[in-house]
Amino acid sequence: MRSRSIVFPLQLAAACLFALTTFSQTRDKVRFGKVDPEDFAATSFEKDTSAHAVVIADIGSSEFQVERDHFELTYKRFKRIKVVDKNGYDAASEEIPLYISGQLEEKLINLKAVAYNLENGKVVETKMESKSVFTDKYDKNHILKKFTVPGVKEGTIIEYTYSVTSPFYFNLQPWNFQNEYPTLQSEYSVTIPEIYDFVFLKQDINSMLTVKTTVDRQTYNVTYESNGPTGASQHGSFSANTVKNVWTAKDIPALREESYTTSLRNHITRIEFQLSAIKYPESPIKPILGNWQKFSEDLNKDENFGADLSKNNGYLGDVVDQLTNGLKDDTAKARRIYNYVRNNFTCTDHSSLYLTKPLKTVFSSHNGSEADINLLLIAMLRRAKLHADPVVLSTRNHGFTHELYPLKSRFNYTMAAVTVDTLTYFLDASRPYLGFGRVDMSCYNGHARMLTAESVPVYFNPDDLLEQKSTFVMLMGGEGGILKGSLQQYPTYFESCAMRSSIKDKGKDAYFKGKEKDFVAETVISGVELENLDDNEEVLKLKYDFDMKADDAGMIYINPLFTEAMRKNPFRSQERRYPVEMPCVMDETYTLNLTVPDGYVVEEIPKSAMVKFNENEGVFQYLIQQSENSIQFRSRIKLNRAVFAADEYNSLRDFFDMIVKKQSEQIVLKRKS
Question: Who contacts 170 (Cβ-Cβ below 8 Å, separation ≥6)?
Answer without folding.
Answer: 275, 288
